[in-house]
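Worked example

This section walks through a single chain of length 238. The input is the sequence exactly as stored; nothing has been trimmed or padded.
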Amino acid sequence: MPSPYKRILLKLSGEALMGTQNYGIDLAVIDTIASEIKEIHGHGIQIAIVIGGGNIFRGLSSAAKGMERASADYMGMLATALNALALQNILENKDVPTRVQSAIEMRELAEPYIRRRAVRHLEKGRVVIFAAGTGNPFFTTDTAAALRSMEIGAQVIMKATKVDGVYSADPVKDPSAVKYDRLSYLDVLQKNLRVMDATAISLCMDNNMPIIVFNLNVPGNIRRIVSGEPLGTMVSGR
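Given that input, the structure is written out below as tokens.
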């Protein structure tokens, strides 16, 4: 499979792992995601993954209810580690070599995040899953995805969502919402579009890191994007 990308960073939200459940991990959904990752891994694409934890714990919403923000964010980071270990287990059951690196030290479960080691794993054909965000409160896993993508030299961030791109409004609530095929970083910031948080978008803009927002629920979409098919919404410097 010819591809314009050699190394990608896939951003998975915790909510993407819930399936139709209201909470937790749907192993059938993770199995489907893992099968798609295995397919592109088999074509020699180097894959890093940043995973969220919103299916288990949301730091920001808990802070809004009175919990100290820093403590809530640390709890959210631990939730990302649970998701990372679940995805690692299913990938390895499919014979895909995988390493989890955590920004918070938990040696019995995951390697500490070391940039050079992560790059070496990718070069050796291992999928690397980054857990615990940036390791700092007040930063989202979107910001972690932007940061890690630059540190490892990824060529693109593929942000998996439940819709087929970026819209002018919520397409579920507003039938007149318009889908964008391409956006600039400034478009996203000025129009306050919910692609990623402003910190992540600014970081991508400063380093010219393209972002592709796509629908994870359509089978084969990861392969289609990696093969160069124009899907979803591309955010770049234009």
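What to look for: The chain has one domain: 7-236.
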